Description:
Elements lengths: L2 H57 L14 H9 L35 E4 L3 E4 L3 H15 L5 E3 L4 H17 L4 H11 L13 E4 L10 H9 L5 E3 L6 H4 L7 E4 L2 H10 L3 H14 L12
Antiparallel strand pairs: 1-2, 3-4, 4-6, 5-6
Helix pairs in contact: 4-5
The site of zinc ion has 4 residues, from strand 4.
Amino acid sequence: MDMSDHINRTSLGANPAANIKRHMLIRVFAVILIFIFGIFQMGAKHSSCQYSNVNNDYFNPDKNVSLRQDDSKQGKISTEIKKGFIGFNNTKGVVARDWRILLVNRDNPIPKGFSVELAKVQGNVRFDARAAEHFNSLLKACREEIGYSLQPRTAFRSNGLQKTLYDNKLKSHMNRGKSRNEAERLTNNYIALPGTSEHEIGLAVDFNVLKQEFEETEGFKWLDANAHKYGFILRYPKDKESITKVKYEPWHFRYVGRTHAETMKGKNLCLEEYVHYLWKKSRVNSNSDQKQVLPE
Ligand SMILES: [Zn+2]
């Protein structure tokens, strides 16, 4: 046996076992990889599926979404809103087509590229030009019917002003010894983060006294009973705090248009609930091509 023979024999004798071992290792490794990849995928799906699937359903009129009776429960609504279920950011959605019911809150920031034409209205404040006439009619009617002068304290606010207000309030809480977290929590009760305030879209107005006492005035009582006739709603009612996530603000009214305002008033729905209600209705009507909310 010469040297080459030895080499051949060695390689022939040792290689099959080594090969098998190597193949086994590769297979085991591959199985582990597939397993890890699978777990990863499941995790990813679990954390994002609700949001993306929901939006797909929302955009897809052919897909049936079962509507359950408990959809109207407060907890569920706020959870769905939080998930971006029915926010205006769903720009292809039925609700989004109507500027009057643009939902702006902590979970639904003002859409990128949003712009609005403003008009000076009574009280020397600025409001969405499309609703300016209704704004003035509201004030006029209150004055004529009960002799009360509604004083708009603030209506449209720029993003810069909103930021200043927010920061000042935050600072004042911190100066009184509150921790950053506590100061934020207290500030968020009444002042929206810049980019999430209705005042920035020119459809909200604060009247007279920005205090709970406003509730006791004749002006508030009149607004509470009549504002909907002019397309306005009490935006943050006492019994809806858990949904709006904003404390009761008797002074803050929002324009949504007369048709919407009357329905909301009649059904006792806040804007979050109403948008959800329309969304459900659009699902029901999706087969009869009535997806669009009709203008008033
Ligand atoms: Zn306000």
